[in-house]
## 1
Amino acid sequence: MSSVFNSISAFLTHRWGGLAVGAALLGGGCVSVDTIAPPVATLSGGGGAAVVEGRRLYLTTCTKCHSAEPVLDFTAAQWATILPEMAEESHFTSTQTAAVEAYIQAVLATASTATETR
Amino acid sequence: MKLIPLCLATITGISLIPDAVAHPRRFAYSYDVMTMPKGGVEFEQWATWKHSDQRERFEFRSELEFGLTDHDQLSIYLSDWRHTENEIGPDETEWRTAGLSWVHNFTDPTADPLGVATYLETLVGPEKFALEGKLLLQKNIGSWSFVYNGVLEAEWEGDSYDEEVGVIENIAGISYQISPSFSVGAEVLHEIEFENWSDAGDHMIYAGPNIAFRAKSVSTVLAGLWQATDVAGELDFQLRVIGAIDF
């Protein structure tokens, strides 16, 4: 038994040690969910039911194919082309698309007021 | 001959399916916690190459996945078959099993603190009957995804299903998304078999990298696992590729 665990630990140290260091260096990818998709309570316009639903869809359905993309990584102009395409990928109803759009707009609006008042 | 009705079933199945959204895999050996959205349909083709001193084995699986609700996914394993090239003795091609699995998702790996799901599977064939349960855990943090599967499997093999085997597996995976269509990571598989549920076999550990690619309606994942333990007579290496297309 102990030889099994010795070989595991040797293996982990040799081959995965490098990966762990690499992972730590790439730690930039480890952004918290509140940074990626700010909670509705932190948005300047507050949020109606659509905005709340929009964030939920953004974090659940929009993550079926890839990681949650930080909302603020894209400008309003970029979202205007990305969102219709991704809403189609998600097979959203028009209500669901409108909810995600409302949420993205609320996040962008909050960020732009924050910059203006700085 | 058995393959013909199965192929027909697959083709008719595919042509009947509605337009729906997929859920591409980031792992080839680990299952993730997310299920397909309600109405989602995906066809998957698996191929696994298993290399050992005594033989080369190629295993194939054709699968249809359905999103029953936003939290329940049904999979139909249409056909599992394998081709074995033995070092000593003749080569064999065997049709193994068909079966079903059901994943129920409880929590989301991104929105909730921990994503949790359960997986139940049954496979039936002329020389094999198997029942399997898995506990699936997953956490997504930024571009990273971490998964763990705890697996308990009971198998009855042989002409009269009299060779009884229990299997316990621990599978873990890590994946980093480089772009929305591309991720890389690694998977580790620990396995122990109990013949007749009593005699524990050797602890087997396999580990290696994975790579996943997804575009509009197609996706693929590839993983190669090397034996990290030093058990003679077991697999030295295994490679799995899964290609998926959604409808």
Note: Residues 33-117 of chain A form one domain.
## 2
Amino acid sequence: MTEPIIRVTNLSTKYGDRFVLRGVNMSVNSGEIMIILGGSGCGKSTLLKHIIRLLHPYSGQIHLFGQDITRMEEHEFEPIQRQMGVLFQNGALINSLTISENVALPLQMHTRLPDDLIWEIVRVKLHLVELDHAYHLFPPELSGGMRKRAALARAIALDPQILFCDEPSAGLDPVTCLEIDQLFLKLNRQLGMTLVVVTHELESIKRIAQKITYLDQGKALFSGAFEDALKSGIPQIDQFFLKSAP
Amino acid sequence: MPQSTALLTLEGEVTLAHVGDLYHQLHHQIQTCTESHITLDAAGITALDSAGAVLIQTLPRLAERHQKMLAIQNIPPPFQEVLEYFAVEAAAPVPPASPPSFLERLGDGVYRAYQSVVQLLVLIVDILWWSVIGIFNRSGARRGAFMEQCILLGSQAFGIVALILFLIGFVTALQSSAQLRQFGATIYVANLLAIGIARELGPLMTAIIVSGRSGSSIAAEIATMKFTEELDALKTMALNPIRFVVVPKFLAMTLCIPLLTVFANIMGIAGGFLVGITYLDLSAAAFGNQVLEALLLKDVLTGLIKSVSFAWVITIVAVYRGFNFKGGAEGVGIATTSSVVTSIFMIIVVDSFWGILFYFG
Ligand SMILES: Nc1ncnc2c1ncn2[C@@H]1O[C@H](COP(=O)(O)OP(=O)(O)O)[C@@H](O)[C@H]1O
Ligand SMILES: [Mg+2]
């Protein structure tokens, strides 16, 4: 078997004195969709932030593309960083730039494409998230859901190999949520993009999940194929899928 | 006519990393080829992403700009799908944002100035109304909010006001003694200082310091509350934001700034006193008597009236800027800065007004 694109080994971390993650293991192969789920405050965002190297672990290793990013200098990490897109929980658009400028930003900073191509790409990406009309608007002029979609357009501006999303559908209506899931599936199937998505939405999980990692109080109770999770008989997971099922 | 058709090929990875080079290369080839019809053979593509798709779709338009026709053929079927997915044509064309004309901007400016004045007046009336109500009826504000604000305000400004006024008193006494000494009238340093500080420098400097220290934080706090929708939350709980948030601050300012001013006056005179008894060799008793003789109750009172008016200016400007906050987190910074700049300006305008009134009055 080939080396997984993301491999988290025995990851532990703490804020102050309190351990937030305790020996988490997880691996994602290229082209898979991994869902991270668990109760709020169980450390999902924290795990994600470690994988994208915003936080440094207390112990354990994280391999991206086969390289251990916990033992890397900043300049060594940069090329890897360009292969990843991140959708933050709150969008994190730059408020002083228009939506189109936000999406164009990574293209302008990290590629040497001619301008007209950049703006065409921006137009296409905004069309994918159905924000054609928001081209000249500023982030504060959009609703929360629109901001999130704009942030998604920015996250996929560079066609990253791995896309990380922190609660992409939180606070969105079911229709938009469905559209975003379809977008995820298209990106996954047509471009072979690997996705790591934190979400609670049961519908969403059923639609897109190939693998799941279930976090509970900083421990990964389960990490593996979605079907196996349903058969695993772990009480918390059963409860999650039964309770939230109608 | 097959002779007039040029054949170009596109092969390999047509992805973000290579699209820039491919674009320039193809652009050059399209420009330099002599035939008017170009066929692009895409059979050799091994990878295609959104940037590549956009490249392929912009090529015909690029060719058109050079009066040539470009047709693309043999795109491998899996990539055909990618191409359709990232269709440029489907995306609505972007209308350019046209800048408004001079007249439009002028009209807009006048209209906005008018609106600001109306808003400001409404705000002032609101604040005064709810403050008067607030004095008699505490139910609309959190209990202890007024004391909290007083303590906060006092502790923020106390030290810095003391230090600055002491230094100002010190320096003013030194400067004036240099002049008065020529007439052998150094004792009048005490008069000059007492009146200057009580009437002008005490209230003015205190107000400027407080506007920088506390006015700015009021503007920032209200702007942040607006940004995080706290103000809306208050309204939905049937709490009036003016009454709940602004009135305690307004009343605290109205009480604390005059108190700070009295204290500032004392510190200023103490600064002069130090110069008097050391550098000018005046006796402590002589200096003290001179100060008391020179200082009329009227001087102190006009100073205090001024300081109340400054307190109102600072609070109203800060609250106005806070409520008028726009945009994201950076708007908070803008609201804060503009609140300080505006209130210092307004303080000096109001001070001049009082100056004229008391001088002729
Ligand atoms: N910057 C921080 N400092 C201290 N504790 C934090 C910080 N960020 C998160 N935490 C704590 O870590 C735990 C996990 O947080 P997080 O990963 O954001 O949870 P979630 O699974 O809801 O995304 C929570 O209990 C939270 O209180
Ligand atoms: Mg979170």
Note: Chain B has two domains: 5-85, 108-360.
